[in-house]
Amino acid sequence: RFTPRIFSGIQPSGGLTLGNYLGALKRFAELQGGEAETIYCIVDLHAITVWQDPEVLRARIREAAAAFMAAGVDPARSVLFNQSQVSAHAELAWLFNTVARVGWMYRMTQFKDKAGKNSENASLGLLAYPALMAADILAYRATAVPVGEDQKQHLELTRDIAAKFNHDYGVEHFPITQPLIEGVATRVMSLRDGSKKMSKSDPSDASRINLTDDADTIAQKIRKARTDADPLPGSMDGLKDRPEAKNLVNIYAALSDETPDQILSRFEGQGFGAFKPALAEVAVAALSPITAKMSELMSDPAEIDRILGDGADRAEAIARPILEETKDVMGL
Ligand code: ADP
Ligand code: NA
Description:
With 332 residues, the protein is mainly α. It is built from 13 helices and five strands. It folds into two domains: 5-180 and 300-330, 3-Layer(aba) Sandwich (Rossmann fold), CATH 3.40.50; 205-295, Orthogonal Bundle (Tyrosyl-Transfer RNA Synthetase), CATH 1.10.240.10. Keywords: Aminoacyl-tRNA synthetase, ATP-binding, Cytoplasm, Ligase, Nucleotide-binding, Protein biosynthesis.
C-alpha cells in the first residue's frame, strides 16, 4: 500500500566523522537509483536540542550539505534539504507529541546519555527528540530508513508511534518503517575508547576522524588509536574480546570493500605497527577525494543554499499533503 521511499538525516551539530560517513553517507549514496525514492535531510531542529552557537550552526548546515554531496548524494537523484525549511516536520512532530507517551521518551538511552545526571535540566526538545524523528520519517511515509546501530531504538519508537496512530484512529495511515542497518560499519567506535561510538559530539578530537581532516591528521590519529599489544589473528573469531582491534579491522574493511577476514588473513601474526600505516593509507585514499570535494563545494555557499532551497521545495511538495491528510484524520 505504501510506495517504497527511503528517508534519513544527519545532525549539523559538529563536523561529520568517519562514523557518519561509513554508517550513513556512504550508504545514502549507494541507495540512490533503486526502486525507492531517496530523501535526505540535514536535521537542524534536532541539533538545537543542545545549545548551538547560531553562526557556527549556519556554517555547519552548509558543511553538512557539502559532505552529503561529496560522499555521492546527488541532489538531482535525491531530495536533499534542511529540516527547518520544511515546516511540516515541526507541525507533524506536535501531532506525534500527543500520540507518544512520556514513558517511551524517558526510556531512550540516547536521552539518558545526552541529558546526563541532571536530566531535569535537559531541554524539553531533547526528551521529545524521537517524536520529531518520527515526524521526519513519516512526513514522507518513508518505508525504510538507513541508519547506524545507535539509531535503532529511536526507529523502534517511530514504528510504535505509527502503529499507535493507526490503531487510535482506525486507519492504516502510516507505514511501519523498516530500519536498514547493514554492513560492517554500522557502529564505528571511538579511537580512544573501544566502548564508545565515534561521534561528532565527543569532546576529544583524537577520538574521531573528521571528514575535513587532512592526510597527516588522519595518519596521526590512527597511529595514536588505542590498541592492545597482541599480534593480529587470522580471522575475526580471534578478536572477540579485543574491541579496539576489531574496530580498526572493521573500518579497514568498510573503506576497502574487502571483508574483515580477508584483511586479517594478510595481517595474521603482525602487530599494529604494520597494520596502522596500512589502515591510514586506505583511509586517506578513501577520504581525501571527499575532503577535497567538500572544500570545493563550500567555496560557493550561495550554490549550496540554492540546492537546499530547491530540495526544500521538493520535500514540501511531498510532506504537505501527508500532513494535511493527517490533520484531517485527527479532526483538525
Ligand atoms: P553523531 O552521533 O555523530 O552526532 P548523528 O546522530 O547525526 O551522529 O547520526 C547521523 C547518522 O550517522 C545516523 O544514521 C547514525 O546512526 C550514523 N552514525 C553516527 N555515528 C556513527 C558511528 N559511530 N558508526 C556508525 N554510524 C554512525
Ligand atoms: Na546519534
